[in-house]
Amino acid sequence: MASQQDIKRRIRSIRNTQKITKAMELVAASRLRRAQARIEALRPYADRMRSLTVEVAAASGTHDQPLLERRSEVKAVAVIALAGDRGLAGAFNASIVRRSLEIARDERQHSRDVRWLAVGRRANSSLRFRGQQIDDSYVGITDRPEYTHAQAIAARAAELYTAGEVDRVVMVYNHFLSALSQRVDEVELLPVPQEAVEGTDDEPAQIEGAYLEEPDSKEILAALLPRYLEVTIFRALLESTASEYGARMTAMRNASDNASGLIDEYTLRMNRARQAEITQEILEVVAGADALE
Q1: Is the torsion defined by CA of 160, 165, 168, 169 positive or negative?
Q2: Total structural domains within the chain
Q3: Residues 273 and 73 sit within 8 Å (Cβ to Cβ)
Q4: Are 21 and 107 found together in one domain?
């Protein structure tokens, strides 16, 4: 059995760790509120961008648009794995890497090449560790992503697609549901999905009001599609950031609770050790007294 001093040192160490986890939980909660505010501010713009793309596509048609071209044969697929730059967030990063590798395995079973665009240090290091060849990596941006970061990722994805190096581009990211819940989503970015230009049952392709077009609607659509791609990626970056903070807050709260449980357990052990020492001392005193009689 460990001595009282050993147990006291363990309790002190656990309490110090608990202070760190509680501080990290508070920091994550604060940053989560800011991340949620950014998502709520972007949603009206993203929704309007989507509806405007649908309306312009309805007026111009979707012919001769490189980002809409669907290849008859898919030979290569680009996977954008969107994780974080840091750990200590539960299964946040691991779930992205696992789902991305599942997609890559399925594509390779169909004899398709896989190209990787890794967002976040964790995605980059984990995929490289598993022997994947990374085409491009984007690190140091997930704590506070900016629109320019989405532009860079979108430009690279569009370049690979229009050059014919890949025939599909998919993105894997954590969709923010709440501070306690995140969902791994897989989104096909390129070719731009048909519902983005043809509408859905809830949002049919129709013109709202009259537009004075300059230049013509086809050129406007050609300019809108890259913006649509950028906004979609930017929204995923913000969703992922909020998901990371939510996951880290939850993980640190669980760690603090576990630390409290360990402190209670070691305190009980320390009390038992102290009682054992007292009992042993009493037995020694009694034995000594018996020897003197």
Answers
A1: negative
A2: 2
A3: no
A4: no
